[in-house]
C-alpha cells in the first residue's frame, strides 16, 4: 500500500499498473497532475489465514494545486498475493 501511495504522490503510473491485479486493472490509468497527495495513514491491515489475500484500510490526504482545496480519501482495499508479490484488486 505504501508503495502505491508513493506512486500516486510521484505520478508514477507505471508502478501503479505493475502493482494492480491484471483482471481489475484499467486499460488507461489517468493521474491528475493537479492533485498533490500529502499524507498517508494506514488504519489497519489484515491477511487472510491462507496468506494469499489481504485488506488495508487507509486515509490518504490530498490538496488541489489550483484551488488549494484539501480532502481525505478513505478506502478499504483488497489485495492478492501471487508469486510472492502483493497486487491491488479493488476498493471494498
From TrEMBL:
Domain YchJ-like middle NTF2-like span(s) in chain numbering: 1-90
InterPro entries: NTF2-like_dom_sf, YchJ-like_M
Protein name: Sec-C motif domain-containing protein
Organism: Microbacterium oleivorans
Lineage of the species this protein comes from: Bacteria, Bacillati, Actinomycetota, Actinomycetes, Micrococcales
Amino acid at each position: 500500500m505504501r508503495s502505491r501511495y508513493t506512486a500516486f504522490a510521484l505520478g508514477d503510473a507505471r508502478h501503479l499498473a505493475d502493482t494492480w491485479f491484471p483482471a481489475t486493472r484499467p486499460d488507461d490509468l489517468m493521474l491528475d497532475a493537479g492533485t498533490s497527495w500529502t499524507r498517508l495513514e494506514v488504519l489497519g491491515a489484515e491477511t487472510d489465514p491462507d496468506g494469499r489475500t489481504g485488506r488495508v484500510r487507509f486515509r490518504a490526504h490530498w490538496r488541489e494545486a489550483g484551488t488549494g482545496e484539501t480532502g481525505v480519501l478513505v478506502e478499504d482495499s483488497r489485495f492478492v498475493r501471487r508469486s510472492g508479490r502483493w497486487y491491488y484488486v479493488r476498493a471494498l
